[in-house]
Amino acid sequence: MVDNRNTTARNSSGGLGRRRFFALAAGGAAAAAGTLIPASAAQAHGDLTSYPGIWGQRTTDWNTSQLKSYKYRPAFHDQLNGWLRFWFETTEYFEKPIRVGLTAAHDDNMGTAHEQGRAIDLAGLTVTQSSGGTVSVFQANYSVWKDLTGSVLAQFRRNYWATSASLHYHFRSVRTYPMGGRYRDSLHVDNLLSGSNTPAFNSSDKSQIFHVQASCRYIWGKGTTIDGMWNTESRRHAHEVLERIGKGGYIGDSKSHWQAFNRATLRKGYSTEEY
Ligand SMILES: [Zn+2]
Fold it and tell me: Where on the tree of life does the source sit, at the highest rank (predicted)?
């Protein structure tokens, strides 16, 4: 898990820059020797491994619906295995096989996390029905369902934020649709900040704040304002949720408070438990 401990700061100040330099130097030497080698981004991101799925469940290219293998840093892929297992076992509801729809994983042109194989853009989750058919149980593309109404909209929204909770449980960096831009199309997850550690709530982290506010509002039925600003209302509503689920305290008190909030939000969002 050593390769997982890098923080954003270390990558930008030292490690990545040094590896880039070596990569360029190697390319230069090869060019001088008369061999044409493309600029070696591969050497900048360390060892990547291609996997056909996550936790044994196949990944698909969301845009083509075709099965597809993706490359990851192995330690990050291990964490994704843990996440999907947690999602499956905590909801206690769905049947395998699960299909994990992605729009991106390793990519040398999407910023540091994707370049290093430490990020995915999650587009959707599909499960198997007892009848043998498949059904979508998470849809990340906000524009697909934002104009729906009534109970159908509520269902899409609950599944969205419940799945967000399962990811926030494991990763510090989870970017959801209120963050705007491409996060309205798919949900971005990476471990640049949390590394191999389990995350805690940080009241200055906008994506975590959006998640808490939206979960309080859409899953727990509070009238919470969703503005990405941590305030007394958000703090109180999250506290009320922690009281309701028997944990008590405040969401920033410890990692276990953050985990309890997210675990219960996952279960309530998918109607596993009402609390
Ligand atoms: Zn991404």
Answer: Bacteria
274: its two tokens: 């009402």
Burial class (CB in 10 A: 0-12, 13-18, 19+), 143: exposed
**The tokens of 26 are what?**
């190697």
Q: Are 222 and 216 in contact (CB under 8 A)?
A: yes
The residue ranges of every structural domain in the chain are: 1-44, 45-269
Tell me what pLDDT residue 43 has. Answer: 55
Rg (CA), the chain: 20
CA of 164 to the centre of ligand 1 (A): 14
Instruction: Please tell me the distance between residue 255's alpha carbon and the centre of ligand 1 in angstroms.
Output: 25
In the reported structure, the alpha carbon of residue 114 is separated from the centroid of ligand 1 by a whole-number distance in angstroms of 6
For residue 246, give Cα distances in angstroms to 47, 169, 242, 260, 262. 43, 18, 6, 9, 13
Instruction: Measure 102 CA to ligand 1 centroid, in angstroms.
Output: 10
* Cα–ligand 1 centroid distance for 8 (angstroms): 15
Span 94-129, pLDDT tens digits: 889 999 999 999 999 999 999 999 999 999 999 988
Q: How far is the CA of 31 from the centre of ligand 1 (A)?
A: 33
pLDDT recorded at residue 35: 40
Does residue 264 contact residue 243 with C-beta atoms inside 8 Å? Answer: no
The pLDDT of residue 46 is: 74
Which pLDDT score, from 0 to 100, does residue 44 have? 59
Q: How far is the CA of 239 from the centre of ligand 1 (A)?
A: 31
CA–centroid distance, residue 27 to ligand 1 (Å): 28
CB atoms within 10 A of CB 123: 21
Question: What spacing in Å lies between the alpha carbon of 115 and ligand 1's midpoint?
Answer: 10
